[in-house]
Amino acid sequence: MPSSIEKVYSKLRQGTAAALRENLWLAPAATIAGLAALGATIVFRSHYLILCGAAAWVVITAFVWGYSTRAFSMPQWPALRHLHRRQYAETWDTMAGSSRAARVAVSGKAWEWELRDSTREPVRNLIELASINADDDVLEIGSGIARLGLELAPRCHSWTGADISPSMLAHATQRLQGVGNVKLHQLHGDGLAGLGDDSFDIVYCTNTLAHVDELDRWRYVQEAFRVLRPGGRIFLDNIDLASDQGWAMFLGLVAKYRHAEQPPYMTRFSTATELMTYAIRAGFEQVRSHQRPPLVIMTAVKPNPDSAVG
């Protein structure tokens, strides 16, 4: 457990980072003011302690300015025009060239503490709608750098992350060091090959379907049915095209790529009907949709013959 000092430091760091992010002029303004003060102390031959203080202020604020500029500037994602959409491994290996780039690729967050903060809502959705508990063996499809795996592992019996990108899995391995009930599995473009039948209680896929072709979405739902135990639950989410927020995002992409080639990772949306159709056609029961704007979430249950009446 973190100590009281660590908690205070974490809150102070988050507060400072938030202030700098929302007011990007603060650091350069403080540096310029420090330079002006330093110049004044030299001109008026102020006491050497005042001179040293002004110089120290310039050094500190200049460092903060440079650090915040580097930290808050999001790397530009490459166009990757030489790749087609279903070259998932090549696409996401390129996006995950460094740990920072990988964090931005999976969440839009550059710092580790921001990445962990970003998990609150999806973890809450999974606990509420998929009923993850301490006895469950859980599989995530498209697990990336284990953004959610690190948070969910203490809440379940085991967590397995499956991803097609070796680079993402390498970053996940680093983040999961010291966590004993986790496994990582590399996919190779053939569904969930290598994962056994009736192996998991929950299969979920979050923040991933937006980058996956519809044919592969269907394939993963079929495969989820195979690897789930009878009575097991599936959870899928994607940006809801039918929601006001989703439609606004869609129109933004229309404007952005009207005269440009679409990159292979460009967001594609879903509707409740699409996700529910996959589940029904795969054989799931208790198929339901849940609106958590801008997301639509689909949950369903694999039939359990042993619980049938008669």
Quick overview:
The protein has 310 residues and is α/β, with parallel strands linked by helices.
How does the helix and strand content classify structurally?
A: alpha/beta
The total domain count is 2
The Rg value, from CA coordinates, equals: 24 Å
- CATH homologous superfamily identity of the largest domain: Vaccinia Virus protein VP39
Contiguous low-pLDDT stretches (5 residues minimum) are none
Strand content bin: 15-25%
H/E series, N to C? HHHHHHHEHEHEEHEHHEE
Can you tell me the CATH topology of the largest domain? Rossmann fold
Give a description of the structure.
This protein is α/β, with parallel strands linked by helices. The protein contains 12 helices and 7 strands. It has helices spanning 4-22, 26-43, 48-72, 88-95, 99-107, 112-117, 120-130, 149-152, 166-175, 214-227, 244-256, 272-282, and strands spanning 137-141, 158-163, 182-186, 200-205, 228-239, 285-292, 295-301. β2 (158-163), α9 (166-175) and β3 form a beta-alpha-beta unit. The chain starts with a helix and ends in a 9-residue tail after the last strand.
